[in-house]
Amino acid sequence: MSTDVMHIGPGNSVAELKESILGHFCFDVGKSPEYATLHDWYMAVAYSVRERMMEHWVSSLERIRDKHQKIVGYLSAEFLMGPHLGNAIINLGIEQQIKEAAEQLNINLDEILQQEEEPGLGNGGLGRLAACYLDSLTTLKVPAIGYGIRYEFGIFDQMIRDGWQVEITDKWLRNGNPWEIVKPELNYGVKLGGKTQGYTDEKGGYRVKWIPEYEIRGVAYDTPVPGYKNETINLLRLWKSEATESFDFQAFDKGDYYGAVHEKVFSETISKVLYPNDVSEAGKKLRLSQQYFFVSCSLQDALRILELRGLSLDDLPDAVTFQLNDTHPSIAIAELMRLLVDEYMVDWDKAWECTRKTFAYTNHTLLPEALEKWSLPLFAHILPRHLEIIYEINSRFLSDIRNKYPGDDDRIRRMSIIDEQGSKYVRMAHLATIGSHAVNGVSALHTELLKQDVLHDFYELQPDAFFNVTNGVTPRRWIKLYNPRLASLISDRIGERWITHLETDLINLQSFADDLSFQQAWRDVKKQNKTDLAHLLKQRFGMNINPDSLFDIQVKRIHEYKRQHLNALHIIHLYNRIKQKRTDGITPRTFIFGGKAAPAYYLAKLIIKLINAIGETIDNDPEVNQFIRVVFFPDFNVKNGAHVYKAADLSEQISTAGKEASGTGNMKFSMNGALTIGTYDGANIEIMECVGEDNFFLFGLDAAEVKAIKQNGYHPYDVYNNNNDLKEVIDLIQSGAFSKGDTNIFKPLINSLLGDDPYLVLQDYQAYVDCQQRVSAAYNNEQAWTKMSILNVARMGKFSSDRSIRDYCENIWHVTPG
Ligand code: CJB
């Protein structure tokens, strides 16, 4: 069936949907509609929509049993799926009918959609990428299972109090989750701790047994992932940890009631909470246990599916391909070796060949603090058998290296899985690289830097194992669902095929770039989206913003390398000019920020405080706020992102060059008609190549210049001293102008900038301010700006996650989309 034909299958008429919703009220919500809350309606509608996926679910499960199809197992510690209901309605192609059914039932569909608590099972880009990939895998009919953890508490909710971030525990499960189906029969034991013991098997061979300290159980919770109008469903299979025995009767008999439930409490801790760090990692015991827990369940599950298909272990690499979403699941390599060698008695060489063929590894960051490594004692304590296996992998690998590069001890030290400089660590990126047949970066620049720098020795050893797969985002959620006005304007002109053929079809919009009536319609859409956002901010937070001003938006995790403080310095520059009555060339702007800081990341939290402090000062100063406003949108997540990307005129992608592996927010903004001000970093570079340099505001140092300047000795204090404008800006912060005279509060930030400025904020300051001036001038030419915006959207086809998934299929997984 062609994917752009509206499918009204059995059960999808307005009358049938109405009946189904009312039925669920009675049978699942257990109420009569006259006593219904909005949330009850949400549950009834969600059950009705889920029901419509179930028939496809059952037939899709058949494909998983089909031994001729390779399954992609996407292993990821994070899946930031976003709300399910709206997406499912779009992908099932039933939005018109549901709307009508809701109207006839006297309920407001938008209000119902707002009821859904988003499953925030991820921190940011990496988790959201996994979610986009599941959408594309299913839309392309590639059989896939997303394997992860069913955290009871996802990413914290952010509140802002007195300008500071306050973290509130996420409670996404408190009102129930209509999307998941628990499969109690799909459960696996996972061992932890203890020791190992050698023994001789029947054939006289030496074997090793793991005698764990304790064992927990992982239970499968499945969420259906619908493809776009293609009657295909894939699985998101998340593991919840439970006790093997939920109650210790021996302890209870002795009168130790608390002791009796202790094991249960401990076991459930494993999947209790998502670590709230974005790219930096703390070496926590619980974190390694989480990683091992979900990976072990997932591999056991895959081996069960292999058996179900009537295949043998030899068939594994042709039956399943595991993609490691960063190093978080990389212990899977040692775990598969353990399963094969210790439990299935496969000999080492065969097991290793099978393992390498089955795994592929995606690296998502070059930041040194994010390259996961585990201290040896901690690792040995939790996974004693895996450490032995890693030693064996390492010793065989290093002996190959010694043969290939005799006498090159330094290379051995650099490439070893064990870091032996000082305290010893297990380097997970090395394990992932050595144990995979393919390694990829997530943008062209990032892949280049991986090859040149972090994984250079490995690249030299096996250049053919390195690939680039530039990230992408799904146009279903990020354009059609969240920007319906733009989606219908586009479809009016070029038809609907772009929704599944972004690469080939979106470009057809180009021919309308000079069409004045189209331009007007384009501006109308943007204006309405901006007005909606202004209303929302007013309604929720009492903020006042002007939809006629330029909406300049930076939403992403707060991190020094992403340089929200550079943006803040530019705002202060404008503030300073306005106060000095140098307002010539200042275009009215609203600066909108959003993003969470890791709870223990003090400077990131101070940046949030600074942004809010500037915003408050400006709010109280009519001389300034007639030109500029600054707002911080609290609790930025997928649900709030729905209102933000589509309302932007300008997208801020201003990371220090070489630090942002790819970025995906940059893609969402540009696809929704924002122009980008950005550095030569990550996927910005490819976006600029596609949309054209004339339609992109590029500024600042590139990655090579950043490296050079750091090598030659960078002195931020001199930059400050030699630039009067910058000096005034920094001095204003120091003077307490934004902190009611408090000259201490922002000192740590200023000291960091003037002291070593690790992310070259001061170095790029002038280039950024100058570039922003060009933005202002360009924005004043309405027609030219609109044309640039249309061209941006038209040329963004490459950044569909469908293209990324096709790249993986062709180059890495060797799977043919259905
Ligand atoms: N990224 O979100 C994370 N978490 C990590 O631990 C490491 C990297 C981000 O991944 C995105 C998806 O590939 C990238 O676009 C982004 O640049 C990177 O920081």
UniProtKB/TrEMBL annotation:
Record-given protein name: Alpha-1,4 glucan phosphorylase
Requisite cofactors: pyridoxal 5'-phosphate
EC number from the UniProt entry: 2.4.1.1
Reactions it catalyzes: [(1->4)-alpha-D-glucosyl](n) + phosphate = [(1->4)-alpha-D-glucosyl](n-1) + alpha-D-glucose 1-phosphate
NCBIfam families for this protein: P_ylase (TIGR02093)
Molecular function via GO: 1,4-alpha-oligoglucan phosphorylase activity
Enzyme class at the top of the EC tree: transferase
Origin species: Danxiaibacter flavus
InterPro entries reported for this sequence: Glycg_phsphrylas, Glyco_trans_35, Pyridoxal_P_attach_site
Keywords carried by this UniProt record: Carbohydrate metabolism, Glycosyltransferase, Pyridoxal phosphate, Transferase
Function: Phosphorylase is an important allosteric enzyme in carbohydrate metabolism. Enzymes from different sources differ in their regulatory mechanisms and in their natural substrates. However, all known phosphorylases share catalytic and structural properties.
Entry's family note: Belongs to the glycogen phosphorylase family.
Keyword Translocase among UniProt keywords: no
